[in-house]
Amino acid sequence: MITLVFFIFLAIYSNYLGKIVEKFKIPSLIGMMIAGVLIGPHGFNKTPELALSFAPVLKDIALVIVLFIGGLGIGADQIKKIGRPAVLLSIIPATLEGFAVAYLSMLFLNFTFIQGAILGFIIAAVSPAVLIPSMVSLIDKNIGQKKSIPQLLLVGASADDTIAITLFTSFLAVYFQKIDGGSFDIKTQLLLIPISIVLSLFMGWIVAFIGKKYFLNIRNPKLKIAIIFTLCMGLRFIENRYHFSLYNSLLTIMSLGFFIRYYSGEGYKEVHGGMNSIWKYGKIYLFTFVGMAINPALVGGYFFIGLIILFFSLSIRSLGVLIALVGTELTYKERLFCVIAYLPKATVQSAKSGIPLQMGVAGGEVMQAIAILSVLITAPLGAIGINSTYKNLLKDS
Fold this sequence. Notes:
Layout: H1 2-22, H2 28-39, H3 49-72, H4 76-108, H5 113-123, H6 128-140, H7 149-180, H8 186-214, H9 221-242, H10 249-264, H11 268-292, H12 303-324, H13 332-341, H14 347-352, H15 355-358, H16 364-393
């Protein structure tokens, strides 16, 4: 009962802080993250242990919903426009940033290249928690639709995470193989990345294809939404429970949304409305619990070195975004918006920052500090940047 009361209080409290920061032209999600930091274990520590144990589930529910909504926002005709640049956006920025951090870590932190790459590919992932809700909001406002810019960023960001996490896992394995005197085939791991993406997309199509026969024609909208929601959570559970290296549940869920829209015709709007109703509450818990996972105290003495590394790595990442957009019809303003939208980091960094330290990687405490610093700097930078520039940069898009 106490936990239930706390969750009700948390929703009111976080939503209120979100409303306050909005008055200063700052996105509400920043207020919700601040609310999480303040009330969480690294702030005033007023969150019950039982409530913290529910945090991963609630974050997953919210993330699953917004990714599914993101998939629903992509039409088949738009895929033709965004195909090539979306693929390049998923590969080039994260890869360049990850290896840039690896090199910078050798210069400033006295890391080996492998240690630096472990840190680099924690930092390299763009945050779906920040970027995807912002793009969904632009789709709802019909902004950037002539050139499908929000859809382009949605697709690119969802696959970007697959690449960053796979390379993080790979370099972590290389590190321990070197310690044990064994060998590790990095080429095989790189080959697994496109296989993982294709397999995850295929899974989304299979579920939607089955749905075409069995549940997409259900007339009761609440029942249909309940079935789809359960399937989405089931797809997420498979990854959380079994950790298949070739399966990215978040990419699968987004592709499921896309294929359900494809098979449902105009009927997808009914599903979209129902999921949006859930997301209104889910986003509060998502950003609040992301905030709870942030420990500003860890940054400590690595603030200035971390700031230098992030400045250069984000510059390289931004260059990667511009390279990925070469040959598109986007104006320089639209390209600048894409650069800004690709800055925020939060979800992956909060989840992965402590892993090297827990596993005994040398320099793990430094990696954790700089990964957390990347969240503290880029989450507000990206969110505020998107919110304050889209009206001007996407004015005619």
